[in-house]
Each structure stands twice: as structure tokens, then as C-alpha cells.
Amino acid sequence: MTTTLTPVLTANWDRPDSYTLDAYGEYAAAKKALGMDPDAVIQAVKDSGLRGRGGAGFPTGMKWGFIPQGDGKPHYLVVNADESEPGTCKDIPLMMANPHALVEGIIITSYAIRASHAFIYVRGEVLHVIRRLHAAVREAYEKGYLGTDIFGSGFDLELVVHSGAGAYICGEETALLDSLEGFRGQPRLKPPFPAVAGLYASPTVVNNVESIASVPSIIANGADWFAGMGTEKSKGFGIFSLSGHVTRPGQYEAPLGITLRELLDMAGGIRAGHQIKFWTPGGSSTPIFTDEHLDVPLDFEGVGAKGSMLGTRALQIFDETTCVVRTVLRWTEFYAHESCGKCTPCREGTYWLKQVLKRLEKGQGTEDDLTTITDIADNILGRSFCALGDGATSPIHSSVKYFREEYLKHFEIGGCPFDPKKSTLWGEQ
Ligand SMILES: Cc1cc2nc3c(=O)[nH]c(=O)nc-3n(C[C@H](O)[C@H](O)[C@H](O)COP(=O)(O)O)c2cc1C
Ligand code: SF4
Fold first, then answer.
1. Structural domain of residue 330, as residue ranges?
2. Where is average pLDDT lowest: 2-6, 76-80, 316-320?
3. Where would I find the NADH-ubiquinone oxidoreductase 51kDa subunit iron-sulphur binding domain in this sequence (predicted)?
4. Which residues lie with the beta carbon below 6 Å from any ligand 2 atom?
5. Are residues 181 and 217 in the same domain?
6. pLDDT grade for 4, boundaries at 50, 70 and 90
7. 49 has a pLDDT exceeding 90
């Protein structure tokens, strides 16, 4: 249990000029890394225990170690800055407030995996972030931190900021690579994995913004420093994004393993006069939790043991005034809209989930409809081509598990019990 924050990536966010090179410093970690053997850099990241911050939690150093060496092919680093999962809102403020941590991390990572070209694939709608990234990259080139012979080490690196067109599926790493190559973004069959045949069929590392931005601090302070935070298998710190019915929503950087109860204490609790009803531990693709789960350690193992996933630590908090059926409908509409259409279970399943949920939310459904949505979700989960389909089933299964009564209440009263025209609260029925 921990009650303290560990600001590292967020340490300078209060400074009005935090995004400038003057405020950030001289890329001392990159200078140090470029004086090391590239394999020693990979080993340091392995020793730190850093696991991917994009959702799946794959060990970062191990991923880098999969890049074949001496293969004569170009290697690429692609940073996944597509951040589009409902509730996830950490990479965008990170790139706005501290873009140089990302650029420095890119230099260190590219050196370690022997890549001389790197890309930041950023979500197209966030024009303010794209501008800021361009400015940071320009500053780094002007200082000689990018380009040729960086720090006199003989290492060359070109960094390109590429904006997508705003599709959630382009955050899936292989769809992202297709999009970056100029094709329609749809997931590729794996294997081969990107480490073997990624961008332009060459060995490629795809990592999340926060994963890469964490690397300079590991090189600067040492693997043991990082591994000294967090829990046994989920090391280090991460940004926890609290949104929704919270007194002080925002980004709380803390060791993995902190609980929602502790985070809420720091965030001033649920908004005044209300109680927590349900919440997502890691975005809408992770099964919802309730007030029973306030003391679950927010690390990969702790959340998994209770039937959900840590995901992107996007803690969306909903109080007792929220209709769970309406919330699940909204998320499902998102998945149906963002389904890329490549595979039948997800393309058709999300469409039909949306239709049945609409009926349920209006109070026009029957108990059979609950069986139907569970059945549709069962036919998507594990049968879809990529994890978007699986993610779409999380709100369905978990909401029916915890809030079956609330679904039933909708067709008992022939409408939404939270609709002011029907009744604001069940107690008034
Ligand atoms: C539909 C979908 C959307 C995703 N969106 C993102 C995203 O926006 N950012 C991200 O880093 N990972 C996203 N991922 C996960 C990536 O496929 C990949 O696992 C991740 O970029 C790896 O980086 P990491 O190991 O540093 O976490 C998404 C996955 C899926 C299935
Ligand atoms: S699961 Fe959905 S998003 Fe993924 S490939 Fe199939 S249709 Fe496309």
C-alpha cells in the first residue's frame, strides 16, 4: 500500500514553459546512453522491469531484445501516440507538457535497437499536440540531439512526426503500421510480429508514448531506482487518469499497486454528496469494477485477479446518478463505429449489440435480450481478429454481472429509471 505520488514524467507540468528545451534540460540521459553499449541499454530496461504502458503490459526491454541484430535490414522505432480509448487521457497531456521526455526516450531506444529512423504516430484530431511535437523535434534538431553524429557518438537518427486521420483501430500496432505505410489501417495477421516484419517488412519496435518517455529516467537514475517502486511484477510508476464524478479529476503519477481508494483520497473523493457506483480500471475495454473493488492494487496482477485489466490506468468514475445501461450503450456505439470491418464477429456483433442495447435502454426489451447480448458478446470474445472486438465485450459481460437488476428495472418500468421524465431514482417508483 502506498499513499504518495511519484512525479517523474509529470514533475514539471506546473511550469508554464515545461514543454521547452530550456525547462527540460540537456538530454543528459541520452548522452549517457550513447556512451554505453546498445545491449547494455536494453539490459538496463529489462532489469528495470518496465512493462508497456499502452495497455497490454508486455516487458519493454524484452520486446527490444527481439529485434534481430546483424540482419542487414533497416530497423525502425514507432511510437504509438494514437490514444483513442474512451477514458484514456495520459499521453496527450504528457506530450503537451513534457514532449522532450518522449524525444529523449526515442533517441535512447533507437540507439539500443540500432534504428536510424523513428516515427511518432499521433492521433490526427489533436492538432495542438502535433504542433507541440513538431516544435520539440525542431528544437532537438537545432541542438544536434537529432540528425547526424549525435553527441559525437557517430549515431544518426531521423525523427518524423506523422499524424493519423483519427481512427481508434490505428492504435492497434499492426493497423498503425499499415496506416503509416499509407494503406487503410486494418490489423495484420500475426505472426510475423513487428519485431521481425514490421514497418516496410523490417524489424520494428512499437511502443506507447509513456513507455518510451519513462526510459530517460531509468537510464539517468538506474534500473534499481525504477524497480524499487511498484509491486513485485509490476515495477515503477505510471500515470493514473481520474475522470468523471471526482472532485479533482486529473493525472496522478504514482507507483503501480496504488488503490483507487488512495487515489480518491488525493483527488478529494467522489463529488460532494455522492457515492461511487462503478468505474473502469483501464479504459472502456476493461471490465468495470464497483465499490467492492476500491482496495484492489492497481497493478497488472491485482486487477487481473479480480477479473479486469489494468489497461491504460484510465479510471473513469461514475456515481449513483449514472445509468449503467446508457453508459454501456454509449461505449458500444463507439466500438460499433470504430470496428474496422475486417472480421465478421466484431463487425456484425458490435452492430447487433448496439441495436439490442438501444432497445434495452428505452425499456422496450425483455429478459431474453439480456441473454442475447451476452450470447453476442460470447461470440465476439476470443473469435475476433484483434483486441478491439474483445474489448467491446468487456462492458457487456461486466455490467450484466454486476448490474443485472438495473437492466431488469428498465423494462419493468418501461424506460430508464434515471430519465427525469420517468423517474430520477428508483426509490421514487
Ligand atoms: C483497438 C486498439 C487500440 C489501441 N490503441 C493504442 C493506443 O492508442 N496507444 C497505445 O500505445 N497502444 C494502443 N493499443 C495497443 C497496441 O496494439 C500495442 O500493444 C502498444 O502500442 C504497445 O506498446 P507498449 O508495449 O509500450 O504498451 C491498442 C490496441 C488495440 C487493439
Ligand atoms: S476485431 Fe474488429 S477492429 Fe479488429 S480486425 Fe476484427 S473487425 Fe477489425
1. 324-413
2. 2-6
3. 325-370
4. 169, 187, 339-343, 346-347, 384-386, 388-389
5. yes
6. confident
7. yes
